[in-house]
Amino acid sequence: MKIWISSLLLLAVISCKKDAETSTNTVSKDSVSTTENQTESLKKVKNKQTFNFATELCENKGQYDADKYSQEEIEGTYKLWFEYSSLSLSKPSVFKPETLQEVRRDKDKILAKLDKDFAEKKKALESLKIVNDPYWQNIKDQKIQELVLEYEFDKTEIMAFSDPSVLLNSKFSKNCENFVRALNSDEDVMIEEWRKLRIQMSKKNGNPEKIMDEFENNLHAQNKNEYAMVDLITFGWGNCANNSIKRVEYDEKMIKAFNSLFIKIDSQCDEP
């Protein structure tokens, strides 16, 4: 079932809830009328243009003042807000010794692919034309910086699988010294830190017994040190260091800021 929403500020563009608040009385169950103020605003704007965009559950048509913003600026701001909200780089996930061996073997190719992916995404972000507004310009700058940090983190992690000593002087290791120390110490220290990590992981898991059973089984494997390294880098240092990356917060404030670019937004939404 589709529902139609027409409002000045569509505060819930993402969720598109059917019972969203509006500033007018409901005309029918599945539609909301445009306010008088919106009508007046539309009359005052001489050069109105329409921008079609999608969100998670909605197809939207936004009318904007083309004397204030170009189509390219609106589209670029939309990409920055919605399409670029999650920018990930090309990097293999390492959860088992087999993948660890592949990453070690193909390290140079993996790093080259990461470099290429980063360069392309950074160029796309930098060349993105957005509305000339301090808020959005700041979001763009923050997003570029987030991408740079993500790239540096990914590169460090890939290199660490072959040489954990690279973590010793990494800026991402500031609050993760226990994992760095274990990865660059003798086997006993590494195994003990591995055990501590697995205990912590089990406390946060719905099946703690499984987490510890895996540890006990891997502890007695011939390649136990590889199992330990995978866990200590991926789940230990990796999760810890990843938290140090400052990320752009995609919140209600940003939704409001995007919606405010339009005079009116009509949204056709699927019920969640």
Structural features, described:
Strand 4 (about 50-55) and strand 5 form a beta hairpin. Helices cover about 50% and strands about 10% of the residues. Helix 6 (about 175-185) packs across helix 7 and helix 7 (about 185-205) packs antiparallel against helix 8 (about 210-220). The protein has a four-stranded antiparallel sheet with strand order 1-6-5-4, with helices on one face. Strands 2-3 form a two-stranded antiparallel sheet. Among the domains are: about 1-70 and about 260-270, no CATH class; about 175-245, no CATH class. With about 270 residues, the protein is α+β, with helices and mostly antiparallel strands.
User: How much β-strand is present in the residues?
Assistant: 5-15%
Basic shape: elongated
Rg measurement, Å: 25 Å
Fraction of residues in helices?
A: 40-55%
The biggest beta sheet, please?
A: 4 strands, antiparallel
In round numbers, the mean pLDDT is 87
The tally of beta strands, per DSSP, is: 6
Counting DSSP H or I runs of 4 or more residues, the number of helices is 10
The separation of the N and C termini measures 10 Å
Structural class: alpha+beta
**Low-pLDDT stretches:** 7-37
Q: Can you write the helix and strand succession as a string?
A: EEEHEEHHHHHHHHHE
User: What order do the strands of the largest sheet run in, or round the barrel if closed?
Assistant: 1-6-5-4
